[in-house]
Amino acid sequence: MDARVKKILNSPIYLLPLSENFKKLTIQKGYRTLNEIMSMPIRELMSLNWFTSDMLGELGEFIYDTRNNTGGVD
User: Fold this and answer.
1) Nearest residue to 59 (alpha-carbon basis) of 2, 26, 6
2) Quick one: CA dihedral 34, 59, 18, 52, positive or negative?
3) What is the reported pTM?
4) Is residue 6 exposed (0-12), middle (13-18) or buried (19+ Cβ within 10 Å)?
5) Taking the chain, what is the end-to-end CA distance rounded to the nearest angstrom?
6) What is the predicted pLDDT for the residue at 2?
7) Domain boundaries, the chain
8) Residue 1: pLDDT over 70
9) CA distance 12 to 18
C-alpha cells in the first residue's frame, strides 16, 4: 500500500469526501478513521446492525477511486 493511501486511511473520517450518512454513522459508533473500519473482516462489518450494504459499496468505491487516482482525495 502506498503512502498516499495510508495517509487517507488514517485521516479523520469527517475530512474525507464520503456521504454525510457514512460519516455520521461511523463517527457515532466511535470510528475515527477508515483504517479502523477496514481492519474488520467484511463478514464482521456486515453483522453490525448499523453498517449497510450501501455503506460497504461506498467504502469500496472510495478505496478503489483513491488507489487508482480517479477520485477520493489528493
Assistant:
1) 26
2) negative
3) 0.84
4) exposed
5) 15
6) 78
7) 3-67
8) no
9) 11
Amino acid at 27: I
Coil, strand or helix at 56: helix
Domain at 3-67: CATH architecture: Orthogonal Bundle (1.10)
Instruction: Characterise 44 by phi-psi region: left (phi > 0), alpha (psi -120 to 50), beta (else).
Output: alpha
SS3 content of the chain, % helix, strand, coil (to 5): 60, 5, 35
Task: Please write the tens of the pLDDT for every residue from 20-44.
Answer: 999 999 999 999 999 999 999 999 9
Q: Which cell is 1 given?
A: 500500500
